[in-house]
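**Sequence, C-alpha cells**
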Amino acid sequence: MSDHAKYLTTEVDGQIATLTMIRTDKRNAMSDGLIAALENAYVTLPKDVRVVILTGAGGHFCSGLDLSEHVSRSAEDGVYHSRNWHRVMEMIQFGGKVTISAMEGAVIGGGLELAASTHVRIAEPSVIFQLPEGRRGIFVGGGASVRVGRILGADRMVEMMLTGRKYGAEDGLRLGLTHYSVEAGEALPLARKLAEQIAGNAPMSNYFMVQALSRINDMSRSDGLFTESLCAALVQTTPDAEEGLNAFLEKRAPVFR
C-alpha cells in the first residue's frame, strides 16, 4: 500500500471520480499526508474525468488539523507549510475539475478550508462547521481567511473564530457554507446526480464558470465587466455554443463534446 492509499481512495466511473478520505480513526483529520494524497489524486486523474466527488468515510468529512502530527516550526517553515496547503487548495479550486463535497459529521478547521475550495457543497444533518483555532492557540493557514471569509464576511468569521461557534447544516445553508442541506444518507446520491448534470455541460462553459467568476469577484466593477465580455466572446466560439443554440431551437437536449 502506498502512503497515499492510507488517506484516500479513488474510484473512477466515466467522467466522474469519487475521492473518499478513509483515515476514520482520526475522523479524516487534515495532515501533510492527506494534502499529498489529495494532490496526487487530482494530478493522476484520467483526462476524461470532469467532476470529482469528495467525501469522507466513517461518518465524518474532515475534522481539521491532526494535532498529534502538529510540530513546532520556525516562522520560515510555517510560511512554507501554509503556502503548500494554499497551493493544493488552489489546485482543487482552479485545476480544471469541478469538485462536489458530500459532507457529514465534522467539517472543522482545515476540513472547512478544504470544503470551501470545492465548487458545490452538500451537507447532511450531522454536519458541524467550526473554526476552533482560537482554542488551540493557532491560526487558520489553509485559506480560510480568504475562502471562508468571502462566504461569511469578515465580521461573522471573526465572531465564529473568537467564540468557536459551531454551525449545523441548516445554518450552513443560510450562511453559504453549504449549497444544499439534505437528509441523512442523501449527500452522496445527490452529489452523483449533480455530478452527472455538471459533466453533461459544455466543457468550456464549465471551465470559465470555475476559472473566471471567483477571479472576477476580486476585480473592480469595470475590470470584472470587461473580463466577462472576454470570457463570453471566447466561449461562444466553441462548437458547443453552436450545438447549444441549435438544440434550443430544435427543442431537443444538447449533445456536447
Q: What stands out?
A: The longest helix spans residues 75-94. The mean pLDDT is 93. The chain is about 50% helix and 15% strand. The chain has two domains: 8-199, 201-250.
